[in-house]
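Throughout this chapter, every protein is written as a compact record of paired, labelled lines. An example of such a record is reproduced below:
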Amino acid sequence: MAEAITVARPYAEAAYKFAVEKKELSQWSKILQLAASIAEDDQMKLLVGNPRISVSQLSELILDIGGKKFPAEARNLIMLLVENKRVLLLSQVSQLFEQLKAQHEGVLEAKIISAFKMQSDQVDRLINNLERKFNRKIEAQVSVDPELIGGVKVEIGDETLDASVRGKLEAMAVALKS
C-alpha cells in the first residue's frame, strides 16, 4: 500500500498544483473522484489487465465514460496514467489530492474512534478541543470500536492521540516489561 501511495504522489501533486494555479480545486476534486470510480469498476479492472486491450483503447474507453466531464488537462493525466500502466492508482491519486486540498484550505481530517457511540455534543466538544490544539478546522469521521474498552482514540494525519483504556493498558504492559 505504501508503495502505491509513493507512486501516486507525483501525479496527485501535479494535479493539485495545476488546480491551485487555475483556481479549480473543487472541479479537480470531482474530476479525480470520477476518474477513480471509473478505474475502480470491476469490469474496468478486468480490461486494465487484459493484454488484448491496447493503451489507446483503454484510454479512449475511460475518456468516453467520463465524456465532457474531463477537460483537456484531465484527459492528458488519464492518458499518461494509462500509458505508464498506473491507471489503477487513480484512487490513491484522488485521495492524496484531497489531502493536499484539505491542507490548502486549512482543514485537517481526523478519525475519531470511540469505545461507545458518542453523542453529538460530545463529538462537538472533542472537535472544538482538537481545533484549538491544532489551530485548524477539523473534519472528523466518527466510528465505534468496542475493543478500546473505554475512552477514545484520535488519528490526525500520522499523529495518534490514544486516550483509550486499551491504549493505556498496552502502555502499562510495555512499561512493566522493560
